[in-house]
Amino acid sequence: MNNAFPKDFLWGAATSAYQVEGAAQEDGKGLSQQDIINSERHEKFGFADASVASDHYHKYKEDIALFKEMGFTSYRFSIAWSRIFPNGEDVVNEAGIQFYRDLIKELKDNDIEPIPTLYHYDLPWPLVEKYGGWLSREVVKDFEVFAKYVINEFKDDIKYWITINEQSIIVQYWTQKCYVLPEYQDNNQLRYQINHHMNLAQAVAVKLAHEAGALAGPALGYAPVYARTCKPEDQIAALNANDLRNAYYLDVYFRGYYNVAALTYLKQAGLAPEMEEGDEQFFAENLSDFFAINYYDSQCAHACPEGEERRWSGYNLSGKKGDMSGFETHPGFYQMCSNPELRTTDWDWAIDPIGLEYVYRDLYTRYRVPFMITENGLGAYDELTPDGKVHDDYRIDYLREHIQATKRAMDMGVEVVGYMPWSAIDLLSTSNGYKKRYGLIYVDRTDDDVKECKRIRKDSFYWYKKVIASDGTNLD
């Protein structure tokens, strides 16, 4: 085995617009649904809102200088739709597009490959008010206007376009990732209707990227599902869960149709999306070129009796282990559960680097497309010491083991082109504010006090710098 990663491997890290930029209504930017959602969560739970976030809008040059110091050769970020089109339609905000021109130029000047995401949860708020946002098929037309403008604007600068971020997470946590009007929140079929509209939008983005001579692919929050026991019933439950939570999305991206077993179940349960003639043909004509994996953990499932109540994915808001609000349950199909074989983060996310190796191997066999990691990280309580240090050995351990898993898969023939963990700098967690930190760079602020958002290099910053400089051979 050759332990070094290829010389052209893309080393970097990731963020998203609403979680780092701030300047939520500055220089002509309109509100997004995430500005509204996070404002409500600020009032309800005390988490920070998105108005300042990590102030990347004003500090992007300082941040890119730190990325350069770490040795980044790539940076995954997102373009805020409402910064370009404040009303979500076709009137361009020149100051908004200039920010991304400046950002991309600064990256290119520092030999960092810009890898932008077109949509990362932040739909312009006027489109929610106009027709309910992603609930309406009308959104696909407005997304096409936005995507066409942005892709054409940067066609000479961008090789890889990431289309839509984490559709499966949007289905599971739809009121956190989309603003869903209260009168629709009991209609769970709309979760899958929103996803269908996103599939149409993602195919539009792939088509536009190809016309511009670029490559395009989705970023999916992907977690393999293991069976709780060796019982055949649990094995079938895990297969069902993988079909509905994973293959239901990937088969559209890379084969052009919905996974048959998952769609059959959704029809039986009254949850299937309404489709128009030609939709799957459009998917098949615009298949993705690569898969951007957002990997944090693996999942576990067991058999579920018919009589159970249907429930959706729970979450841990407190950061106290065991404080999970519940598990997704589909009667007669599967029930998710904790995996007793794995340790967890404080937010009950299983830590499973071998699971990432499993994902690479399994999906490369299924779809034979290149992969890049666009999110992978450990959310934790980071402590800033009195002398201005952050000792995050736990994060280093997590990243080391996942980089090793990536290389093992590559040594078995899997194509992986880049590794961009979550996150480059500390940012606003949609579910947990600034208590839950992921960054290689500490941002000195709290949920209550923005301070100056000073940047401080964590121990993981210096460690990752050595990893990159050594082409992945120095992981100590």
| Percent of residues in beta strands | 5-15%
- What structural class results from the helix and strand content? alpha/beta
Number of helices: 16
- Helix proportion: 40-55%
Shape: globular
Query: On the 0-100 scale, what is the average pLDDT?
Result: 96
Q: Using only CA atoms, what is the Rg?
A: 21 Å
Please give the largest β-sheet.
Answer: 8 strands, parallel, barrel
Number of strands: 14
- Strand and helix order: EHHHEHHEHHEHHHEEHHHEEEEHEHEEEH
Low-confidence regions: none
Distance between the termini: 19 Å
Spatial ordering of strands, largest sheet: 1-2-3-4-5-7-11-12
Question: Would you write up a description of this structure?
Answer:
- With about 475 residues, the protein is of the alpha/beta class.
- The chain has 16 helices and 14 strands.
- The strands form 3 sheets. An 8-stranded parallel β-barrel has the order 1-2-3-4-5-7-11-12, surrounded by 4 helices.
- Helix 15 (about 395-410) links the parallel strand 11 and strand 12.
- Helix 10 (about 190-210) runs parallel beside helix 13, helix 11 (about 230-255) crosses helix 12 and helix 14 runs parallel beside helix 15 (about 395-410).
- It is globular, with a radius of gyration of 21 Å.
- Belongs to the glycosyl hydrolase 1 family.
- Keywords: Hydrolase.
- This is Glycoside hydrolase family 1 protein.
Provide a brief overview of the structure.
Keywords: Hydrolase. This protein is an alpha/beta fold. It contains 16 helices and 14 strands.
List the helices and strands and how they pair.
Elements: E1 10-14, H1 17-20, H2 33-45, H3 56-70, E2 74-78, H4 81-84, H5 94-109, E3 113-119, H6 125-131, H7 138-153, E4 160-165, H8 167-172, H9 174-177, H10 189-211, E5 215-221, E6 225-227, H11 232-255, H12 260-268, H13 279-285, E7 291-294, E8 299-302, E9 329-330, E10 334-337, H14 353-367, E11 371-375, H15 393-411, E12 416-419, E13 441-444, E14 454-457, H16 459-469
Parallel strand pairs: 1-2, 1-12, 2-3, 3-4, 4-5, 5-7, 6-8, 7-11, 11-12
Antiparallel strand pairs: 8-10, 9-10, 13-14
Helix pairs in contact: 3-5, 7-10, 10-13, 11-12, 14-15
